[in-house]
Amino acid sequence: MLSQTVINRLKEIVGEKNVVTDKTGLFSYSYDGTLLSGEPLGVVSPQTTEQVVELVKYLNEQNIKLIPRGAGTNESGGSIPVENSVVVNFARMNKIIEIDTENFVAVVQPGVINFDLQLELEKKGFYYPPDPSSYKASTLGGNLAECSGGPKCFKYGVTRDYILGIEVVLPNGKVINTGGRNFKSEPGYDLTRIFCGSEGILGFVTKIIVRVIPKPITTRTMLATYEKVEDASQTVADIVAAGIIPTTLEFMDHLLINTTEDFSHAGLDRDAGAVLIIEIDGYPEDMDEQVEMIGEITKKANAREFRVAQTAAEVNQIWTSRRCAFGSVSRVRPSYGVNDITVPRSNFPQAIEGILKVAKDFGVTIGVVAHAGDGNLHPLILFDQRNKEEVETVHAAEQALCKMALGLGGTISGEHGIGLVKKKYLDSEFTPAAMEAFRRIKKTFDPQNRVNPGKIVNM
Amino acid sequence: MLSQTVINRLKEIVGEKNVVTDKTGLFSYSYDGTLLSGEPLGVVSPQTTEQVVELVKYLNEQNIKLIPRGAGTNESGGSIPVENSVVVNFARMNKIIEIDTENFVAVVQPGVINFDLQLELEKKGFYYPPDPSSYKASTLGGNLAECSGGPKCFKYGVTRDYILGIEVVLPNGKVINTGGRNFKSEPGYDLTRIFCGSEGILGFVTKIIVRVIPKPITTRTMLATYEKVEDASQTVADIVAAGIIPTTLEFMDHLLINTTEDFSHAGLDRDAGAVLIIEIDGYPEDMDEQVEMIGEITKKANAREFRVAQTAAEVNQIWTSRRCAFGSVSRVRPSYGVNDITVPRSNFPQAIEGILKVAKDFGVTIGVVAHAGDGNLHPLILFDQRNKEEVETVHAAEQALCKMALGLGGTISGEHGIGLVKKKYLDSEFTPAAMEAFRRIKKTFDPQNRVNPGKIVNM
Fold this sequence. Notes:
homodimer; alpha+beta; Uridine Diphospho-n-acetylenolpyruvylglucosamine Reductase, domain 2; Uridine Diphospho-n-acetylenolpyruvylglucosamine Reductase, domain 3; Alpha-Beta Plaits; 4 domains; seven-stranded antiparallel beta sheet; five-stranded antiparallel beta sheet; FAD (chains A, B); oxidoreductase (chains A, B); FAD-bd_PCMH-like_sf (chains A, B); FAD-bd_PCMH (chains A, B); oxidoreductase activity (chains A, B)
């Protein structure tokens, strides 16, 4: 528990109403998108960089650890409080400071919700491509910390590709600025990207300059339905081989088709083995030809149905299916474990096979939703958290999934981060020398191990 | 001088003919694209990662410093040998290991010349976008070390955006592998990009996985000629505002038009104040409309002439003009100082004005070639290296250029690196805390300061 002296000082720094210490309040900040939890001693919500500096300095003096937090939607335990810690909640630093359409840049505070930025950008004809499924809740600071992906990475890349510069309060309370309003503003080594994907363990990002792009002139959304999973995989390979670069190549299997249909009523074929959501964008003149090519490719790959969304409402329904995928499985079993293993795209069919094998070997139910164009799969293991034996089986199955992905030349985590959940598998992906580099960089920035300790690597 | 014992051991490691210690041989490795030079004790050319490991370990024991080197084309002194050092020349590690068209990936050794990769890719319908003007000589390892740009960054980004993974021999001789055949293969923090742009001071990159893209179906190259520099600047703003994303928006001023014309005979108008080389790519159907729009924009901005290249030979001539720009000025004065200051694109006109002011204030001749779409300018200061007084004036003018760029929200170096040349200006761009971060990261990887010491920061 925090002493009254500490509480008073925190209130002085961030303001009376921006300090939470009551039991119910603390509970709200004790979990994230995983099944893990941990209670902090307090929650503070700074509104300025100067307040963050003050907080860092004061809590360092008090030997209290600090846990940065965006919206807490992350899937790897990255924002779970550890012992003797205060959560630094960035929800009140949610200003869009500037949208600079001349330089294709937006300057934001870290607590801005991804979707809110999209809305403001849309008014000016612009767009911020990395929009993870959580984008209606997740913050740009959180997206940066996890180097979030999303359904449009195949064409547009991940968060890393859109961060041009940051302001960071280091664990010693000093402030650095990196980058600028230009993707070439990165002399010396790349300080911006050391922080992007670092899961908040190296410091507190307090301002972000993001690259934005003109909103695509036209978009077309298609849905292809398959009896067999292999045929959907084949379609992905064939589309890419035809030289088409869709924005989206999203895959959902039979289980997910059914669980999402309950919510979205998009008219997905409940008997189907798999669907692909395919989206392209570009100049209006190119759309028809590409849609036709894609239609033919799906037919050649035995698609049962190929549908082109005709109205905005239809597009929205299809996307609702996809965006509600994670939550939708809760109707089947009370808990689910999300994974984000990623393999080279050409190994996507083998990864699907591998998942089926893991499900069989461990006797667990797994639904699959995937960013197929990125080779990034989200096998969702369904279980009941209250059943200890089942929980152990799920952990074993998760480990097997990671091993399988590594065996296919992939990674244990494509976009959700390592956090607490995958920390134990990280050294199966990296050599001891690389693990040592991870630890040393952490130590360089945070020698006392005070900022988000215990995430990614043990010190 | 190296002792015979050391020379013998080096020959054992890399082979007899891959060790250079004679005066003439050493001289060839004593300079780079700058006017600086420094003689190494020896030059070794490893052919395998294992040999690099052996070299690092052995030279560490001998307390001899190591200077990694690609083709030595860099413009910032990054590959200049320092005292008591051996150059590790990667020219013999020049194999294209694999081109994986399914995953849009090429795996290469660091000594592969950029142009050689382009040729191999072209056979398979692929393309590697970051092609700096030096691409016929510069290596992919060197491009990675400097995070090279080039004329097509406006649409396609810089080297950083195309590096998917690397193998690195650390200064302690240990090997790490980062990334993979997927842009989402970067769990933990971004080790790949810590090395990209680090100018070879953190270790030796021995293998690179690069992202490649399908070759654009159609390209159109245009040339717009202006009486006034301002009108060319205005065109850049207007094209971007029209929502067109060209691959190229290259600018050359009156002086460069004339010096390059001597070589390329592209028919540039020798009386003109400026030209813009504009290139677009995409689907054939979109080209005519965009060319027409661009033509109208240039006319509205008072272009004297707007020309669309009609044949491959014409395209080649225009590009020859641009690619020979740096070298071409040698006819005017014996030496030139290249700069690569970069500003937010919207400040391009002010940067041009700033350059003219510097030229006037310091009484120096400056020609300007620029990646105008990136706000990345190359003011070339012409002088005679043998005249000490003039050299001092040039240094003062360079400093003024850097200051001007920072004043416009830009950076002192957009694509050439810091090396030795800009080291003294780096702390005018970064806070002391950021400078400290640079030094600490160096120390983390290279505590003995043995690999490419003295570049970017003093330790």
